[in-house]
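[DERIVE STRUCTURE TOKENS]
===
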Amino acid sequence: MSQTSACSHKHHGECARPETFGSPVHISLTVNGKAVEADAPADLLLLDFLRENLGLTGTKRGCGEGDCGACTVLVNGQPVTSCMMLAAQAQDKEVLTVEGLSQGGKLHPIQEAFLDAGAVQCGFCTPGMLLAAKALLDTNPNPTRDEILAQVAGNLCRCTGYAKIVDAVKLAARKMTVL
């Protein structure tokens, strides 16, 4: 007899995982430059930790399968779909969300460029796009159109057709070069 069929819970899915899997774990990480320590269920997604525990709602819940990029954050400078990463996996790592881009009330040059180039329409994909662009520009200050398209390929946008996003990343590269 399987564990699910022997389950006494009203919702049988609760028995499909070991009792200890959802037990709290203590995690320490840096989010947007600030040290964070919290107890969280071991199976809590980084996306949910950021949104629910820290109130950082700029990171969007999209497909929940790592395909759309709406939940992209940077973990140690690398783009990560936070719907596919457990919060506990961010232990001792640095996480950057879209809220961490602006400093002292001043938009980051990438954010300014997206506005200047009209690369923001509905805005749902924008946080993930901004962070994917930042990861690229941090390692390649003068990317080609093809390099930009390759970088944002995992971030789906249904509004812009990507031309304005590519223009925005090129503009951001120029803005960041003069800083």
Summary: DSSP finds five helices and five strands in the chain. Confidence is low (pLDDT under 50) at residues 1-20. The radius of gyration is 19 Å. The domain at 22-100 is CATH 3.10.20.30 (Ubiquitin-like (UB roll)).
